[in-house]
UniProtKB/TrEMBL annotation:
GO terms for cellular component: plasma membrane. Keywords: Cell membrane, Membrane, Transmembrane, Transmembrane helix, Transport. InterPro entries: MetI-like, MetI-like_sf. The keyword Transmembrane applies. GO terms for biological process: transmembrane transport. This is ABC-type uncharacterized transport system, permease component. It comes from the Bacteria. Coiled coil: none annotated.
Length: 307
């Protein structure tokens, strides 16, 4: 065979193989994207589109047309009070959740408590952090409500009347205690990787330099963990601020907070105003988005040390 023809044949085969390889790579790339396609569908259908619908509805009139009245009506004293109570409930549940959750996680990760408790604690935290809504409200009503198990037991066996001491489950304090059931486990799940990231060399170096355990925590560990802790608090604040089902099932209209006021506006009552409800929801979105943005920024800062 002529050498020139052989070279042309080999070149054609090589071009064909390269074309097939490029097509195979393109097909493999598309196949890899198919794995995350449900995620994008979920985000678009249940996050982006509902958010856009709320934003548009906040600037629409009931009969049609555009208006800023819904946003301006957020200045009503009842709405301001509802936001303020929601912020207080979210702040205190986030603060207590951070303190208690950090102590529990540090006990099994750093402070010498039996490490066999770690896996059961993390497993329970994974379940409890998602236990909310009507089941959680019913559990607390059955346990700490006016006729709850613990309430009646303390009254009959020890003569302790929680009601006389000012305890009321259907109040902001009761809501904070209820929220702690899922706030503490969520804190444990988030802060445990950060605690695992504390290197033993840092503690040993501090001990070699003569630092006590208290000085190590005050000067080394806590400054490193502080962005993570503050970020966790921001995330817990957003988690509590956006909780709707638990608050409605527990207190109903007895407590004036933003989620309950939002529910009253959009459920279709005679006095309800869906577009004002969209404005309320837009305000909640802005607050939770700010808290989540703070969490993401602080987490990025903390990861620089913990890598």
């Amino acid at each position: 065979m002529h050498p020139f023809k052989t070279d042309r044949t080999m070149a054609a085969i090589s071009d064909s193989l390269r074309l097939r390889a490029s097509r195979w790579k393109a097909g493999a790339g598309m196949a890899r994207w198919l794995g995350v396609l449900p995620f994008f569908v979920f985000v678009i259908l249940f996050l982006i589109l509902p958010t856009l619908y709320i934003v548009v509805g906040a600037f629409r009139q009931t009969g049609g047309g555009w208006t800023f009245d819904n946003i301006l009506n957020l200045r009503q004293q009842s709405i301001i009070n509802a936001y303020w109570v929601s912020i207080k409930v979210s702040f205190w549940s986030a603060l207590l959740g951070c303190v208690i959750g950090f102590a529990m996680a540090a006990s099994v990760v750093l402070w010498g408590v039996d490490r066999r408790l770690r896996n059961p604690l993390l497993t329970f935290s994974g379940v409890a952090s998602n236990f909310a809504g009507v089941p959680l409200a019913f559990a607390f009503i059955a346990t700490l409500g006016p006729a709850g198990l613990i309430t009646l037991y303390l009254r009959t066996e020890f003569g302790i009347n929680l009601r006389a001491w000012g305890w009321n489950l259907l109040s902001s304090k009761g809501l904070i205690v209820t929220y702690l059931f899922f706030q503490i486990p969520l804190m444990i799940l988030i802060i445990t990787p950060a605690l695992d990231g504390l290197r033993r060399e840092w503690r040993e170096a501090a001990a070699v330099l003569g630092a006590s355990s208290l000085q190590y925590w005050r000067m080394v560990a806590l400054p490193i963990l502080f962005p993570s802790i503050l970020g966790c608090m921001a995330l817990l604040f957003a988690n509590a601020f956006g909780a709707v089902a638990t608050a409605i099932a527990l207190t109903g209209p007895a407590l004036n907070i933003a989620p309950i006021l939002l529910y009253a506006q959009i459920r279709g009552d005679v006095l309800g105003n869906p577009n004002l409800g969209y404005a309320l929801a837009l305000g909640m979105i802005v607050i939770t988005a700010a808290a989540n943005s703070l969490y993401i920024w602080l987490r990025a800062r903390s990861e620089r040390w913990l890598k």
